[in-house]
Amino acid sequence: MLDLTPADAGARDGAAGMTATPAPAVAITHDFMEIYGGAERVTQELTTAFPDAPLTAVLGRESVARRMGVADRFTSVLPQHDALLRRYRVLAPMLPAVVKAHRLDDADVVLSSSYAFAHLFRTRNDAPQVCYCHSPLRFAWSMTGHYEDEKAPNSAARMAFRAMAAHNRRVDRKAAQQVHTYLTQSPYVAGQIEEFYDRRAIVVGAPVDCSFFVPSDEPPEDYYLICGRLVEPYKRVSLALEAFRALPDERLVIAGDGPAMAELQAMAPPNVTFLGHLEDDAVVKAMQNCKATIFPSRDDFGLIPVEVAACGRPVLAYGAGGALHTVLPGVTGETFPEQTAGCLLDALRAFDPGAYDPAAIRTHALRWDRQPFAERIGAVVRAVAAGAAIDEAAVTLA
């Protein structure tokens, strides 16, 4: 548990016959906990840092809350119906109003873990908010064109989608002005926050449990790995399927589940294996044993490349977004310049997974270890709760 009391407070207050300053009352908010993915791992670290804080999600599964260890303090605003959990994205135009109508109990600070609507939550006493922003709302800002192409098959649908995206941009930007302090995981997202919200963000990194993601003593096996949530067009797993169709002697293993699972299985060549959802131990084993992991998406940060690096294995990533900061070409893997199957295929043909030092790869990953991350978050929350200035130099991940 992270101690939120200054290190010398107990001795000082004891000498004066006073009690120690209590930790701030924190309310944690999250977007959608339908499956356990990267955003949920980050939120889990926040709940570990603040073990008394209630967690409220717009929508979530009790099973995911149990996996995060927060079932006893978790609330889902929307009912946990399977049909709703599968199709909640169609409710996007209405969700801002739903969130704003749900007032949280009084707190000293709201700590939101947001890539959609979690930063719209407010407490009854209008507590200041620290927002850990994974990304500004993607379909409204950075990926509008991608989502329009995927979700709007005709001109009428495109007009409706554009109107919805414009409405959500207005609501989202207005909500952003009410956030006290923005935190984020990478300079890439900090740039988006500044561009879309006209707000500065402190780059505190993202948490990876480097005591859990560790190298194996065994040599790697003969397969490439893709790991993560199967959501298209966001994750672009289809690019890898097309590339491996032209590499019949190579094996690709895909670990993860999501709404695009059936579509991707239908288009996969015979040398691709889908493992579905894996528990954490099996995920680590898959990372340890792969000869390399492929990361074809443009993620705002992307925990997978760092988790794989903590296991000592290289990554071949699309050279954009967070991968520009987490993958070091020539040291921890390589990047490819265009998000196309052909470009990935060329990169795979030139890639030598045995050319990288596992110890150097892991050393790079240790920059994002979970305990320093919790300390940085704790320092920011303490300062905001006390109305004090934030020591940005101390909490920024260089």
What do you see in this structure?
The protein has 398 residues and is of the alpha/beta class. The chain contains 17 helices and 13 strands. The chain has helices spanning 9-15, 38-49, 62-67, 82-87, 95-101, 144-151, 155-176, 187-197, 237-245, 261-267, 280-289, 303-310, 323-326, 341-350, 358-365, 370-386, 392-395, and strands at 26-33, 55-60, 74-76, 109-114, 129-133, 181-184, 201-203, 224-227, 252-255, 272-276, 292-295, 315-318, 333-336. The protein has a 7-stranded parallel beta sheet with strand order 3-2-1-4-5-6-7, with helices on both faces. It has a 6-stranded parallel beta sheet with strand order 10-9-8-11-12-13, with helices on both faces. Strand 11, helix 12 (303-310) and strand 12 (315-318) form a beta-alpha-beta unit. The longest helix is centred in the middle third of the chain and has 22 residues, at 155-176. It starts with 8 loop residues before the first helix and ends with a helix. The model is unreliable at 1-20 (pLDDT under 50).
Secondary structure elements and their pairing?
Layout: H1 9-15, E1 26-33, H2 38-49, E2 55-60, H3 62-67, E3 74-76, H4 82-87, H5 95-101, E4 109-114, E5 129-133, H6 144-151, H7 155-176, E6 181-184, H8 187-197, E7 201-203, E8 224-227, H9 237-245, E9 252-255, H10 261-267, E10 272-276, H11 280-289, E11 292-295, H12 303-310, E12 315-318, H13 323-326, E13 333-336, H14 341-350, H15 358-365, H16 370-386, H17 392-395
Parallel strand pairs: 1-2, 1-4, 2-3, 4-5, 5-6, 6-7, 8-9, 8-11, 9-10, 11-12, 12-13
Helix pairs in contact: 6-7, 9-14, 12-15
